Amino acid sequence: MVGGLSAFAWLFWNLHTSLDPEKAMTNDGTNLDPWYDLYAERTAGLSASEVRALFAVASRPEVVSLAGGMPFVSALPTELLEGAFAKLMRDERATALQYGSGQGVPALREQILEIMALEGIRASVDDVVVTTGSQHALELVTKLFINPGDVVLAEGPSYVTAMVVFNSFQARVSHVAMDEHGLIPQALRETIAHLRAEGRTIKFLYTIPNFSNPAGVTLTWERRLEILEICRANDILVLEDNPYGLLYFDSPPPQAMRSVDEDGVVYLGTFSKTLAPGFRVGWALAPNAIREKLILANEAAVLSPSSFSQLMISEYLNTADWKGQINTFRGLYHERRDAMLSALAEYLPQLSWTVPTGGFYVWVTLPDHLDSKAMLPRAVRELVAYTPGTAFYADGSGRNNIRLSFSYPTPEFIREGIRRLSIVINGELDLLTTFSQTSPLATIPHKLGIITPPSNIG
């Protein structure tokens, strides 16, 4: 039970109220919060993401969760973490438990340079600002740049919590179309021209170019260069978010956009996917003027990022074979991706999906007649959870899409989860076929990296 409701009832209520504050009102139209009328206007943009609304139910042991993109932290060697902790407490206890710099521990920033060099980035240690996860860096950049009504350009679909952040600062999110090669440059040109004709102020382009969340697609090198040129010509900052870039399966993705443009790109990185999210350590690499404001904003928000977490990670990087550990994660996620694609091909061959070459996610397209958000409570009744596509658009699009995550469940659970999901989807399709003259399968759109289910996914 969750708060006196069944888990399924709680999920249904949460998903239907999290994005609509009016649905949290009582029957006589008054809000249950006595401070409701005193909040700042910008709080109207605060809402629980659909991903977060799933966690309480999806974490139940009987539910196969293909929803949240949680890394498989159990693959980390316990002895290395314990050794790093013991050494830290023995040698640097006073520093680890004390306040620190608003920019971050210098030794860790030096190590971050080594990590970014793997993706072609050359920078100074002074250019790095450590944050409380890259999510915090995203929030700080948005806070620095966005006035109410300003436009953020974002891939469509885009990272769910980025949408929450942008909305919380009263930005207008304008999505730019993607395909299997990532964001489409011509669509970016057209979107910019349209917004400028309306007199809109565009502040930055937000992109996850490597194994994007949620689509799983990777922006090609040629498009990276073209998009940078478009943004330079239009004085638009690029916010390059790269949580998954080192988690490739067969070959590395193209080098970072920041590797060819130091002045027009703010690069966001994190240890959440390649080490563990519990440390809450990320970073921003920014041009000088932006960097200075980021440090001030960081100090205003948290005073200083956790010295303990930073020094733990620094000790881990000093003592562990961290590149070998990333290779271990790659192998695990590769196996799980293959398990998901194999199960989709077996149980739901009538659908279409992306084939990621790294990262955590597969993006599935349903027939137009199906509504992934409305279907979710029925999926949970079948003890499987996914994230509806609407979570990844600011405008309510994506109702016939779902995001599936393969990072956390074992291959056996992934297969069982897809089998359960097929019961739900095939049941919905049977109903549509029964009550409609037109086959719903005829309306699966060919867009956003939709690829015919592969015959060989090894």
Order of helices and strands: HHEHHHEHEHEEHEHEEEHHHEEHEEEH
Low-confidence stretches: 1-13, 15-29, 449-458
Integer-rounded radius of gyration = 22 Å
| Helix percentage | 40-55%
Query: Can you list the strand order of the major beta sheet?
Result: 2-9-8-7-6-3-4-5
> The biggest beta sheet, please?
8 strands, mixed
Structure explained in plain terms:
There is one protein chain. 41% of the residues lie in helices and 13% in strands. Helix 1 packs antiparallel against helix 2, helix 6 runs parallel beside helix 7 and helix 6 crosses helix 10. The chain has 458 residues and is an alpha/beta fold. The chain has 14 helices and 14 strands. The strands form three sheets. Strands 2-9-8-7-6-3-4-5 form an eight-stranded mixed β-sheet, sandwiched between helices. Strands 10-11-14-13 form a four-stranded antiparallel β-sheet.
Descriptive keywords:
458 residues; alpha/beta; 8-stranded mixed beta sheet; 4-stranded antiparallel beta sheet; 14 helices; 41% helix; globular; disordered N terminus; disordered C terminus
